[in-house]
Amino acid sequence: MAPASPASSAPGSPRLPGPSRAAASRQGRQGRVGSMVWLKVDWAFLRSPRGSLKLSRTLVALAALICFMASGSHEAYAALAGMETGITVLFLLIYLLRVDTQIRCFYWPLADVLNSMIAALFLLVVSLFALIKTNKGTLAGGVLGLVLLVLCLVDVILLYKKISLDKARGRSAPAK
């Protein structure tokens, strides 16, 4: 019995239609503007109050994560700080890349408010437990957690104002 060979190298096998490798490489070099969707980066968001708040939340959560990991504290402290860092980075990317305007079936500010409120609740508990510890790294992480708690509450207030303004703009004036 002869060894099995791939279908493309078997004699008499049909070749699938399509561009040759040279044509595909030329097309790749020229760029496929029509077939690719490019995300536009909204750099003005980083200069806005909400953007700078998201960026500061990310940096403080990252600093708390580093403090908890460097001090060798309980895994729950590092897990909460790591999850807060990751989720805040994801929301920052959603707003920075304007994904919230492209995916309209999901109301992003409400999800962000719920995330901030739940994070504030968990940060309150974990930061207070971290402040009880005598380890300096855990203590520093607890203080950064309380700072992050305040930033989460400020984020809730800013997002609530945005939701309230969006709701008021969406209503039409009553007919007289």
Summed up:
The chain is mostly helical and 176 residues long. It has helices at 21-30, 43-47, 49-71, 75-96, 99-102, 108-132, 136-170.
Structure description:
- The protein has 176 residues and is mainly α.
- The chain has one domain (43-166).
- The longest helix is centred in the last third of the chain and has 35 residues, at 136-170.
- The model has no long low-confidence stretch (mean pLDDT 81).
- The relative contact order is 0.12.
- Helix content is 70%, strand content 0%.
Features:
176 residues, mainly alpha, 7 helices, 0% strand, elongated
- Written as H for each helix and E for each strand, in order along the chain, the element string is HHHHHHH
Give the mean pLDDT: 81
- The count of domains is 1
Which of globular, elongated, flat, extended, rod-shaped describes the shape? elongated
Largest sheet: none
Question: How many separate helices?
Answer: 7
β-strand amount: under 5%
Q: Structural class of the secondary structure composition?
A: mainly alpha
Helix content: over 70%
Give the terminus-to-terminus CA distance. 90 Å
In terms of topology, how is this protein built?
Elements: H1 21-30, H2 43-47, H3 49-71, H4 75-96, H5 99-102, H6 108-132, H7 136-170
Helix pairs in contact: 3-4, 3-7, 4-6, 6-7
